[in-house]
């Protein structure tokens, strides 16, 4: 498999966690979002791979091109079911997916590079951007804190879908100086992930395109 | 089942489509997001149901409370598998979920009422808001147009997950005066949905809380 990825894209980071949890090998194809003359993601070559011009994209072992991290992770879990990223129980799966959706829908898109760039074009400065980013991260993590469990990873002793979304969001919170003090459960999950080989392997600090 | 819903919330509208496609009965519990003194969604009574204070939320027949429309729709498809909202093939499912995620992650959260309210607090006027909204809807629908098929609904003769996300987004595009001229495939799907009983039943014009 080939993963079109950018080291500190949290959506790429989620898919890297899922691949690592399942022990799946892949080749990283770095897509630099921050080239001054326009990111590699906006070039025709990459737009032919992903018409959205976003990362990640996954080329499967059968040569199929998949986009959108939630769709890619569900694909990986269906195609390579062991170890599972979701519980078997329908209601438990819904709770796990709800945490993923809070982060994937209501937090990250509000502060990713596209959104930050449009806010800059609209005249907002870096201080205002940090305020904007902090608003959405705090709202989302505040909800997640109430939904996850009291021990282990988000929903038990083993990491899964919710953790694959939460840990990259914690990384973004730290990057943008958003306090995690109000979220002891999230801090507990983050501390466990920091010691887990799959999460370490997937971390932005450990990628081929890490500066 | 009980669905906590608001007539023109596109996330509620998605779940209403999924319920209608499966022929599932439910009681609508209207949550008015636009009460002048603070939406019903921000009251303690509703925050106990959904700590995010967003709609929709679903109370299942077993009394379980589920939140986040992507998670609720996947639950419905797993718990009530007929008719299916996703193909059986893993890659096809990934393409269907990718369209849902483009809309659910990269379009709708950028223009929902929470985001509009924060932009207003930041001093942006209604003209600027329409520009902001149009930017994200056009970007997302432009990508979706390239990903869906040449006939029928998004991915074939029968409607499914991608359609349940796309049709509410088309409704939002019309509400916010975003042109659909560049998207003939999307227009075709919208025309089919306008004649389909499940989509008609789920439409914002036909809800108990429609003004």
Description of the structure:
The structure is a homodimer of 211-residue chains. With 211 residues, chain A is α+β, with helices and mostly antiparallel strands. Chain A has 2 domains: 2-83, Glutaredoxin (3-Layer(aba) Sandwich), CATH 3.40.30.10; 90-199, Up-down Bundle (Glutathione S-transferase Yfyf (Class Pi), Chain A, domain 2), CATH 1.20.1050.10. Helix content of chain A is 53%, strand content 7%. Chain A contains 9 helices and 4 strands. The first copy, chain A, has helices at residues 10-21, 44-47, 69-79, 90-111, 113-121, 126-147, 161-175, 184-194, 197-202; strands at residues 2-5, 27-30, 57-59, 65-67. A 4-stranded mixed sheet of chain A has the order 2-1-3-4, covered by helices on one side. In chain A, strand 3 (57-59) and strand 4 form a beta hairpin. In chain A, helix 1 runs parallel beside helix 3, helix 1 runs antiparallel to helix 7 (161-175) and helix 7 (161-175) packs across helix 8 (184-194). The radius of gyration of chain A is 17 Å and the shape is globular. Chain A starts with a strand and ends in a 9-residue tail after the last helix. The mean pLDDT of chain A is 96. Chains A and B meet through helix 3, helix 4 and helix 6 of A and helix 3, helix 4 and helix 6 of B.
């Amino acid at each position: 498999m080939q993963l079109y990825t950018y080291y500190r894209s949290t959506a790429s980071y989620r898919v890297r966690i899922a691949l690592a949890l399942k022990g799946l090998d892949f080749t990283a194809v770095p897509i630099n979002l921050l080239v001054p003359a326009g990111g590699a993601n906006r070039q025709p070559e990459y737009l032919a791979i992903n018409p959205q011009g976003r990362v990640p994209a996954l080329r499967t072992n059968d040569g199929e091109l998949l986009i959108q991290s939630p769709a890619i992770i569900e694909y990986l879990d269906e195609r390579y079911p062991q170890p599972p990223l979701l519980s078997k129980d329908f209601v438990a799966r819904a709770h796990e997916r709800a945490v993923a959706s809070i982060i994937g829908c209501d937090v990250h898109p509000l502060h990713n590079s596209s959104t930050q760039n449009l806010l800059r074009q609209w005249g907002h400065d870096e201080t205002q951007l940090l305020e904007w980013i902090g608003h959405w991260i705090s709202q989302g993590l505040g909800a997640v804190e109430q939904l996850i469990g009291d021990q282990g990873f988000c929903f038990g002793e083993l990491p899964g879908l919710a953790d694959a979304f939460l840990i990259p969001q914690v990384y973004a919170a730290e990057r943008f100086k958003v306090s995690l003090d109000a979220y002891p459960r999230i801090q507990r999950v983050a501390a466990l992930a920091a010691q887990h080989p799959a999460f370490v392997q997937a971390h932005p600090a450990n990628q081929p395109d890490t500066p």
